[in-house]
């Protein structure tokens, strides 16, 4: 559903404008409502889910037994931190200050369309990610089957 990389600016109030290429899709498929939560595996990144996709993810994560520490951390970072945000009449969303601060997302950021969700990266964290190469030891069997 979403794909592509967009450099964006977050204003002084913490609002970001949804890129024009996504606005109709966000309105149509998401009812102009997204859910912002933490990326539990990578620093400097937030995840933005369409409301319907979020409900599926939330329910799946909440089914994990809380007794396992890894499950509990995932539940805290995804479900516990989830915040609904609505797209305003100017095509903007307000990213909560707590989420921006915890992820070190400042004025300059990068919005990635990642299929069923967006990823909002701090500019520095995104740069670090794209400059990394995939080590030979990180190549999985599934990756070897890809025809790129």
UniProtKB/TrEMBL annotation:
<keyword id="KW-0677">Repeat</keyword>
<keyword id="KW-0963">Cytoplasm</keyword>
<comment type="subunit">
    <text>Forms oligomers.</text>
</comment>
<dbReference type="GO" id="GO:2000143">
    <property type="term" value="P:negative regulation of DNA-templated transcription initiation"/>
</dbReference>
<feature type="domain" description="SpoVT-AbrB">
    <location>
        <begin position="82"/>
        <end position="125"/>
    </location>
</feature>
<keyword id="KW-0238">DNA-binding</keyword>
<comment type="similarity">
    <text>Belongs to the MraZ family.</text>
</comment>
<dbReference type="InterPro" id="IPR035644">
    <property type="entry name" value="MraZ_C"/>
</dbReference>
<dbReference type="InterPro" id="IPR007159">
    <property type="entry name" value="SpoVT-AbrB_dom"/>
</dbReference>
<dbReference type="GO" id="GO:0000976">
    <property type="term" value="F:transcription cis-regulatory region binding"/>
</dbReference>
<dbReference type="GO" id="GO:0009295">
    <property type="term" value="C:nucleoid"/>
</dbReference>
<keyword id="KW-0804">Transcription</keyword>
<keyword id="KW-0805">Transcription regulation</keyword>
<dbReference type="InterPro" id="IPR037914">
    <property type="entry name" value="SpoVT-AbrB_sf"/>
</dbReference>
<feature type="domain" description="SpoVT-AbrB">
    <location>
        <begin position="5"/>
        <end position="53"/>
    </location>
</feature>
<dbReference type="InterPro" id="IPR035642">
    <property type="entry name" value="MraZ_N"/>
</dbReference>
<dbReference type="GO" id="GO:0005737">
    <property type="term" value="C:cytoplasm"/>
</dbReference>
<dbReference type="InterPro" id="IPR003444">
    <property type="entry name" value="MraZ"/>
</dbReference>
<dbReference type="InterPro" id="IPR038619">
    <property type="entry name" value="MraZ_sf"/>
</dbReference>
<dbReference type="Pfam" id="PF02381">
    <property type="entry name" value="MraZ"/>
</dbReference>
<protein>
    <recommendedName>
        <fullName>Transcriptional regulator MraZ</fullName>
    </recommendedName>
</protein>
<dbReference type="GO" id="GO:0003700">
    <property type="term" value="F:DNA-binding transcription factor activity"/>
</dbReference>
<dbReference type="InterPro" id="IPR020603">
    <property type="entry name" value="MraZ_dom"/>
</dbReference>
